[in-house]
Specification:
The protein starts with a helix and ends with a helix. The model has no long low-confidence stretch (mean pLDDT 96). The chain has a single domain (2-152), classed as Nucleoside Triphosphate Pyrophosphohydrolase, CATH 3.90.79.10. The strands form two sheets. Strands 1, 4, 5, 6 and 7 form a five-stranded mixed β-sheet that branches. The chain is of the alpha+beta class. It has helices at 2-11, 56-68, 139-152, and strands spanning 16-25, 32-37, 43-44, 47-49, 70-81, 87-89, 95-110, 119-125. It has three helices and eight strands.
Length: 153
């Protein structure tokens, strides 16, 4: 998050528009991979902010690998999320309005490897048994994914 950190030196904690991507990674048992974040101690999706020159898909691939050790073989764009629902204030005071490209992934390789500066734990969850403590910006994304699954079944 070099670019955002550089901006923070100039604007302090004031709201930024932060573009980024996340990945809904699903295993063979249709369980969703979630990470326990260190910054807010809540469960969320692997993802992060766009760096200058990156595409949204590149962000999704990079963040997935950095945070989980897994490499996406195929990504499919689910949707782009923005607006008031994606406002978030981090525990240390930084404010953001997220613009998030969300990708679906069920073909991946590698071994799970927790990135210890940002992630406390990684677990696969059945969609019916997700933790209650979900990071606020991920809630509308997960809700849309749930609705998508309901329409398929």
């Amino acid at each position: 998050m070099g670019y955002i950190m550089d901006l923070r030196k100039i604007v302090g904690t004031r709201p930024l528009i932060m573009a980024g991507a996340c990945v809904i990674l699903v295993d063979k048992q249709n369980r969703l991979l979630m990470q326990l974040r260190k910054d807010n101690e809540l469960w969320g999706l692997p993802g992060g902010s766009l760096e200058p020159g990156e595409s949204m898909e590149e962000v999704a691939r990079r963040e997935l690998f950095e945070e989980t050790g897994l490499k996406a073989k195929e990504l499919r764009l689910l949707d782009v999320f923005s607006g008031k629902e994606l406002y978030y204030q981090y525990p240390h005071g930084d404010e953001v309005y997220n613009v998030v490209a969300v990708y679906l992934c069920n073909e991946y390789g590698g071994e799970i490897n927790i990135e210890e500066t940002e992630v406390t734990d990684l677990k696969f969850f059945n969609i019916e048994d997700l933790p209650k403590e979900i990071s606020p910006p991920d809630k509308p994304i997960i809700n849309k994914y749930r609705k998508m699954l309901e329409n398929i079944l």
